[in-house]
Write a structure and sequence with these properties.
- The protein is α+β, with helices and mostly antiparallel strands.
- The protein has one domain: Roll (ph1033 like fold), CATH 3.10.590.10.
- The protein contains three helices and eight strands, in the order E-H-E-H-E-E-E-E-E-E-H.
- Strands 1, 2, 3, 4, 5, 6, 7 and 8 form an eight-stranded mixed β-sheet that branches.
- A hairpin with a 7-residue loop joins strand 3 and strand 4.
- The radius of gyration is 14 Å and the shape is globular.
- It starts with a strand and ends in a 9-residue tail after the last helix.
- InterPro entries: EVE_domain (IPR002740), PUA-like_sf (IPR015947), UPF0310 (IPR022996).
- Belongs to the UPF0310 family.
- This is UPF0310 protein EV700_2613.
Length: 144
């Protein structure tokens, strides 16, 4: 059975990954990407528009399914070689997390709901993924 994941990155970084068909997490570390399997569902949560910015967004910004293959290094220049994983991204809208906080199993009843996102990649329930996908106006990617 496929799993569902939330990855965390600024919206500007997510836009690049969507355009080029990949994802990166945790400043390019390979380990977290190795937890993903082909067919797993992934949604990006973007706390900000720009990396390190104060431009709060707090929205889900991309939704897709992990492709077959392993994480691979990609030389971005300047000595930065992060690991990536290929993803089939869906055409979806952006959705604020704020109206979903009380409904998501991950955040319901939690005052410090954002703490879990600090880890950069976290597994969520299929029900939470379906709720997020609906908010993004996408047909939910059905788990196996």
């Amino acid at each position: 059975m496929n799993k569902s994941w939330i990855a965390v990155a600024s919206a500007e970084h997510v836009r690049r990954g969507r355009a080029e068909g990949f994802m990166q997490v945790c400043h390019g570390k390979a380990g977290p990407l190795r937890r993903l399997r082909p067919g797993d569902r992934v949604v990006y949560y973007s706390p900000t528009v720009t990396f390190g910015g104060k431009d709060r967004l707090q929205a889900f910004t991309a939704l897709g399914a992990v492709r077959a293959g392993e994480p691979y290094p990609f030389d971005m220049g300047g000595g930065f070689v992060p690991f990536r994983r290929d993803v089939d991204w869906l055409a979806v809208g952006q959705a604020s997390i704020l109206p979903l906080l009380a409904r998501l199993e991950l955040t319901a009843g939690k005052k410090n709901w954002g703490y879990a996102f600090r880890f950069g990649l976290l597994e969520i329930s299929a029900a939470d993924m379906d709720l997020i996908a609906a908010a993004m106006q996408a047909a939910a990617i059905a788990p196996d």
